[in-house]
Each structure stands twice: as structure tokens, then as C-alpha cells.
């Protein structure tokens, strides 16, 4: 039996001399080296990446999909397809809070699940997982799963039906929509309709969170319906717009995206500097909490996709204003992006900067601008020069120095910037 694709990919990368790894300026080679390092955390038994959270793994999946769209390396293409095929089967069993969005589930049952997301006094997101959750599970190599044995044509052998959308819901609508976007990315690479249909099912489930108590629109952050924040609503916009360009019922998704955008623009979450605060207070006013990098990013991808589905000059104009305001506000004097919590951000915020880089690249594809090129290249170059150890693992502070230990969240977030640099070289 031939070696697993992961082993083949890593062996091919490992033959590159370390001196080359240190000096290479080729964006694609940098990302390939980083991908080889990332896969030490992929647990085929759970379908997730050890050392990071449930929604973080959705973002790792998205990053790999974006990389596969931009690098035709056959081993990378095969690896990405195997990861998609394995994760869709294995991951639902590790949903940290399944069934919470079922109306028959009692609030007491949910509160005893051990999974919770909250905001600390300093405005940072904090996620608590059940004891012995998947992130600490024993490692299982992909080659040891019967499901991943290759057929005669070298593709994975399917061993189970695709899970229903309900298996991916955990009561936090941002989590749900991160997975929807991840499966849309997998569809883009494979054209497997099951991935697209799963994303549609997740989105439809989240529409039940509309409207909030503010302006008769928008979606809540969670099943508790006690906070309307930017990230959940930006993800709702972006998912609807992505689906409008891929699913059959285009008008249905365009309508949702436009309705969300109209509500978001009237919500007050965009401040007078042009950046986006975290959410709304109990009086439905901008709460002036942190302008996280990912809140400046997700909306860019959503506006790009909406403009593609329903062209309107205002979409890309708005995206440009937000992107440039964010670059000005979040960059240091060398152009490197930082979040307020840096460099010691927790497991949630350590993912944020890569999401901004990923979506800034999408905006640049739609509306090229030297400011975006400069930002992406400055961050990718700094990561490679200053935020990388001898094993090509990438940490939290993109300006450096490397802070040990790196994990799947810090590494995949930095990889988003490396992948973005591939198309702006």
C-alpha cells in the first residue's frame, strides 16, 4: 500500500535544505513548508487540529481550501481532498455542544455541557471546552483510518453518509457559519455538492436567529439571544453572499445578504474612524469595544462576494474604506498587523489576524490596490523572518520574536497571510 498523502507531502518538503527554508522568498514554497509543519497537529481520529478549538478548526479547513485554489501541486491537491473527506465524517462527533439549537433541549442541559463562550472584562473572547474535549485527544494518523484507505484511483474511499447540518450546530452562530464557509471552500476545490449542500443547511439553520431586538434585523451571537455582535452578522452576510454565487437559489441568498448588509450599516457598529467595533450594547448602540482584526476582515469577503452576485459600486467602495481604515489603525510602523491583546492573545483572538489577511486578499483580487499588496507582503515577510522556529512553526506575534509554543491556531492564522501573499507577488 502506498504511503499516506500526508507522509508523501511531508517527505517531499523535508528534502528541501533548511538553508533554503530560511532564505526562500517564494510565497508558494513558504506556504508549502508551513503546511507540512501544520499537519503535525491534524488528528485524523477527530477530524480536527489538536491544540486549537472547534471553530478554529473550521478556519484551518478554510485556509487549506484557499491554499489549494492557488497551488496546483498534485500532492497538496490530494492532501486537501483527503482532509475534507475525513473531517466531514469525523468532526461532528466532537461538536462541543450538539443539539443546543433543538427546541426540545432544555437550558439546564446546555448550561451543563461544559462549552461556553464569553467576553472578559478587557473585551477579549474566552472559550471554555468540556473536560477531555477533542483538542486533547490522542493523536491518530490519517493513514490508520480505514476510511482513508485509497481506492484504485488513489482517492479516499467513502465509508459513511455526510452528516446533517444539525450535527455542526453548537448554539453559537458564528461557530456555525465558520463551518459553513469552510465547506464552501471545500466545494470550490472539489466541486463536491455534498459540501455545498452542508453549507446551505447550516446557513438555513442560522436564519432562525433573525431578527435581534435591535432594529428588527440582524442575528444574535448565540442561542441565548443576549448579544448582537459584528462577527456573527458579518459571517451571515458573507455566507449568504458566497452561497449566492454557488447555489441554485441565487436570488434567495442575495436577498438575505442585502437585508443583512442594510441592517449592519444602520446598526452603528461602524465607528467614525471607519473601523468596526465588537457589537451593540443593551440599548442597541455601538458598545465601543475592541476593533478586532477579524471584524475588519470578514465583511470584506462578504462585500466582494455580494458585489459579484449583485453588482453595486457601493459594495467595493465600502470594502475599500474599511480595509484602509483597518490597515491604518492596526498596523505598526513596519506595516505588521496587531490585535489589542497581542502578543499574548488567547485561543480565540490568536486566529483573528489571519482572517483579516485572507479577506484582504479577496478584496485585492476584486479591486487591486497597492495598499493591500504592501500590507499582505509586509506581514508575510515578517512572519517568515521573525515569527518562525526551526521547524517552520509559526507563532502569535507576526512582528516577532517567536513566542513558544506555537499551536494550530497561531500557525494557521499566520499561514493565511502566507497564502494571501501567493497572489500578490
Automatic annotation (TrEMBL):
Cite the residue spans of the region called Disordered. 92-113
Identify one Pfam family in the record: Glyco_hydro_76
What GO biological process terms does the UniProt entry carry, in alphabetical order? carbohydrate metabolic process
GO MF annotation, one: hydrolase activity
- Per its UniProt record, what SUPFAM superfamilies does this chain match? Six-hairpin glycosidases
Per the UniProt entry, the signal peptide is 1-21
Alphabetic keyword roster: Hydrolase, Signal
List, alphabetically, the PANTHER family matched: ENDO MANNANASE, GH76 FAMILY (EUROFUNG), MEIOTICALLY UP-REGULATED GENE 191 PROTEIN
Annotated protein name in UniProt: Glycosyl hydrolase
